[in-house]
Design a protein that fits this description.
nine-stranded mixed beta sheet; single chain; 9 helices; 11 strands; alpha/beta
């Protein structure tokens, strides 16, 4: 009760401060020309140095919070497991059904996989599920689509993996709005940030080698988390984004229900051309850390032409930061799916970043 009430008060205070300071967040009309920054007078200046890019990146994160609500400050307290029950001991991993307490005081259900026979600390991967009623059970390999069992597959490859539920899915009943959040998206970011704490707290995990992977809902939540939390060294997004300008004819109302960001409709008329940020900027905000996208050619949710726009816009930022090879995309000839060849490419990419 008290943690939730205290958290709601903090969020409302931050929201008031952000509302008063909203005019200070520059408005960018072009979300594809990222090597430009607006100065205090609103004049466009070229971005030619990492320091100048840092200013544009700050503007991107501020614009995201105008829609998602404010990101609560990170507390010094490290989130650890509250409950843990072993569910399977196998030749490649041991799995556990676990709970961890979010900073709001509610318990987030998750599955944890620890590889067998570790000779040192393992890299950790946060594994986020798609829009499916079984939530965390799908990446854990306990149901759903076999192509989305990546928490289990990565554990078989030597990663410690954690697959939590998103609010309203699996076994997780949660009302972010009653807690003072402006969006379920921001509550997800806060929970996933806490999940990184959990991974870092485990004696089997190297706290400096963390990544995040997700499909669809989990794919964009991976990008949101990585943009705000630099502990994510590699982000794998499958069928997770395209440009708002190429999303359903610029009708972005699909992003505006209570499972995402209601302000998209309330403040921006659910129009892609009115959004204060775009996914081109989110991808670029993760640089110089690594980003891999699986973006199929026939994905009816996220038209691949909009993905191409985002990648072309973000690549110069990666180049500027000396990370030109840290942005990779594959485009399998399929629909909204994460086929084996794409997953293998993703796992190889992750291994180059996280494995020693």
């Amino acid at each position: 009760m008290w943690p939730r009430l205290f958290g709601a008060i903090i969020l409302l205070t931050m929201e008031f401060a952000m509302t008063r300071g909203a005019e200070a967040t520059p408005t960018y009309q072009d979300h594809l020309n990222l090597l430009t920054v607006l100065d205090e007078q609103g004049q466009a200046r070229p971005v030619t140095t990492p320091e100048q890019w840092a200013v544009r990146r700050k503007h991107i994160l501020e614009a995201m919070q105008l829609v998602m609500g404010p990101l609560p400050p990170k507390t010094a307290e490290i989130v650890t497991l509250v409950n843990s029950v072993c569910t399977n001991r196998g030749p490649k991993f041991t799995s556990y059904r676990v709970d961890f307490a979010s900073p709001d005081g509610d318990l987030v259900p998750a599955f944890l996989f620890i590889p067998t026979g570790l000779k040192g600390k393992a890299p950790g991967m946060l594994c986020l599920h798609q829009t499916t009623g079984i939530g965390k059970s799908e990446p854990a390999g306990l149901g759903g689509l076999p192509n989305l069992h990546y928490a289990k597959e990565l554990a078989e490859r030597g990663y410690a993996t954690l697959a939590p539920d998103y609010p309203g899915y699996g076994g997780y009943e949660c009302d972010p709005y009653a807690m003072g959040y402006i969006s379920a998206t921001m509550k997800g970011i806060v929970n996933h940030r806490a999940a990184l704490d959990v991974l870092q707290s485990l004696p089997e995990v190297d706290p400096e080698r963390l990544g995040c992977i997700g499909h669809s809902l989990g794919g964009h939540n991976t990008l949101f988390l990585a943009a705000f939390d630099e502990r994510v060294k590699v982000a794998v997004t499958s069928c997770g984004f395209n440009s708002f300008r190429k999303y359903m004819g610029e009708d972005v109302s699909g992003w505006s229900h209570k499972g995402y960001m209601p302000r998209i409709k309330e403040l921006y008329d659910a129009r892609g051309d009115k959004m204060p940020f775009d996914f081109s900027e989110i991808v670029a905000a993760i640089a110089p850390r690594a980003v891999f996208t699986n973006s199929p050619l026939k994905d009816s949710n996220f038209a691949v032409e909009g993905v191409y726009d985002c990648l072309r816009a973000a690549q110069p930022v990666f180049d500027l930061l000396g990370a030109g090879d840290k942005l990779k995309a594959v485009h399998p000839d399929c629909e909204h799916d994460f086929p084996l060849e794409a997953r293998e490419a993703a796992y190889e990419f992750v291994g180059k970043v996280l494995k020693r």
